[in-house]
Amino acid sequence: MDFPIFLIQCLNAVQYGLLLFLVAAGLTLIFGIMGVINLAHGSFYMIGAYMAYALGPVVASTIGGGFLMTLVVGTVLAVIIGYILEWVFYSYLYDRDHLQQVLMTYGLILVFEELRSLIVGDDVHGVKVPDFLSGSIPLGELMTYPHYRLFVSAVCLVLVGAMFYVFTRTRLGMMIRAGSSNREMVQSLGIDITFLYRIVFAAGFALAALAGMVAAPISSVYPGMGNSVLIICFVVVVIGGIGSIKGALVAALLMGFIDTFGKVLLPEAAGVLVYLAMAVILLWKPNGLFKAG
Amino acid sequence: MKTKLLIASALAATALTLGAMPGNAADPLKVGFMLPATGTYAKLGKTIENGFRLFVDEQGGSLGGRAIEYVAVDSEADPSKAVDNVNKLIKQEKVDVIVGSVHSGVAMAMAKEAKASGTLMIVPNAGANAVTGPLCAPNIFRTSFSNWQPGYAAGQAMAERGVKTAVTITWKYGAGEEMVGGFKEAFTAAGGTVVKELFVPFPNVEFQALLTEIAAAKPDAVFAFFAGGGAVKFVKDYAAAGLKASIPLYGTGFLTDGTLEAQGADAEGVVTALQYADGLGTPKDQAFRAAYEKAYGASPDVYAVQAYDAAQLLGIGLAATGGSVDDKAAFAAAVEAATIDSPRGPFTISKAHNPIQDIYLREVKGKENAVIGVASKALEDPARGCRM
């Protein structure tokens, strides 16, 4: 591999890593911080992607505005859906054991897939890259790098910053962290933990849906798309250390590099390298790379 | 003791009557669909069922003088459940014919069971070479293709169009490897060189790293196999990476079949090989398309054609045996001798029971896979490993 190609591959790795973080960010909140094993995370991502596909024309004809407006409307909708989901389903799960959480969230996957099939159908759909981001920069002799992929990376970096700020620098973040380590104590201090968790869950749902919406133009939308991201999201959160945003970011970037260079240098084993890396890291640090915080 | 004897003789009598019944040609013939009704392939499953029913309905609901009755089991496109599912059809439902499946892994498990039980089986899609290779049997037929066929035809056509060096890219799983295998065989035989074979773990759809590899290798052309969501993403990523302008993209038809709406302008000009194409313009094809659209309100695709032909094949066999599926030899002999008048163009069935068919070369123009020629005429799968 000559040097320019190596640099392009590094760019690919970082870009894929950031995309992975974007997708896993919602799971960091719901699984990492609230402690609910949420198998339906992939479905939240899928709902987002289908929103980007289905809402686009609706938004354009009613409110006006293009892709960015669709993102805003979609995110608001996602917060509302997330709030309702927590109220109806997830609020019953906090004190239950993991098996029951797995059962219910797995059931939700089936429900969401079937709803998707009934409402939108089983076709594969493309989502158009917004015009102002449809250009690309030349890279090397033959390749170009699409602006949209850089936009996705930028969205991800903004999210990392925002999440990090909220959790470590604000009162809300402090309450959430306190709630994750001792629910009863926080409650007895006069904080409405039920409402607080409802908000955190809604934010987690919105993050997953946002990831789906942002990823839709490059990944297209198709049945079962959520299941394919679910596992890699868990890998990222577990390697990073449950509850750690910094850890999730580092883990996502690491996975980006392993996946990219694995495909190029060790194509025979590319499918298992990510999981092999997870096994090694967990043997070395059973609680993940970073402790919660 | 006496009662026991009475029950035993009653049972024996019933068994005798039941045993005599299947010979009665007036009974409906039971067709068991084993197709995906849920999940990623649900749409294909529905299309295949529609195509099959269309031909049967055109014949007034009966083939070879026997009314056709359907039962269906959801294959879930899950090979691990395939043996249980197919045995539901064979042992519980006691079907006369199994029709399935979409997924190659499922089809292979089904073929093993069909081979063991002797139940007539018609494969309307799955392309695994093994079904008409090592697993071939007198009672197993296929009306679609073997993975080797469109790959081989694409290799021939690319070499003919002056491509000297190529990079292949596909998912690392059965269908992908078999299509690339067929491609390589034809392409290298015609003097071409495969400079790099790239594989993506299935069902991963992150192609960026490998697109960079393609740009670094600078081949004359790329041969790709992906399907469904993966095909959409690959074609779009290929265009977004700026490779489409400098390195022409070829593939087997699945790269652009049923995905053009989602791929949009990024698919324009992609050349693929498949046993069916848009705009063939033959009277048979036009009649079929009109009938399908009238019956189901949707345009038919290659899957509908293959299923329609599966029903035709069943009709040909049953006509020869007078509606019985018991005489497997007569059934097979009739099918092997027949020419099936398919919307894709007439084709015959090989000794290994795979279609000997023209593979078309198609180019994406607008929202169509328009036919631009024949990539390979009357192409027959080598049926490696088939002993029958």
Protein described:
The complex is a heterodimer of chains A (293) and B (388). Chain A has helices at residues 3-33, 41-62, 67-88, 98-119, 147-169, 171-181, 183-188, 193-219, 225-240, 245-265, 270-284, and strands spanning 136-139, 143-146. Chain A is mostly helical and 293 residues long. In chain A, strands 1-2 form a two-stranded antiparallel ribbon. In chain A, helix 5 crosses helix 6 (171-181). The longest helix of chain A has 31 residues, at 3-33. In chain A, 47% of the residues are buried. Chain B is α/β, with parallel strands linked by helices and 388 residues long. In chain B, strands 7, 8, 9, 10, 11, 12, 13, 14 and 15 form a nine-stranded mixed β-sheet that branches. A six-stranded mixed β-sheet of chain B has the order 2-3-1-4-5-6, with helices on both faces. In chain B, helix 3 packs parallel to helix 4, helix 5 (148-160) runs parallel beside helix 6 (174-189) and helix 11 crosses helix 12. Helix content of chain B is 42%, strand content 22%. At the A-B interface, helix 1, strand 1, strand 2 and helix 10 of A face strand 8, helix 7, helix 8 and helix 9 of B.
The gist of it:
The complex is a heterodimer of chains A (293) and B (388). Chain A is mainly α and 293 residues long.
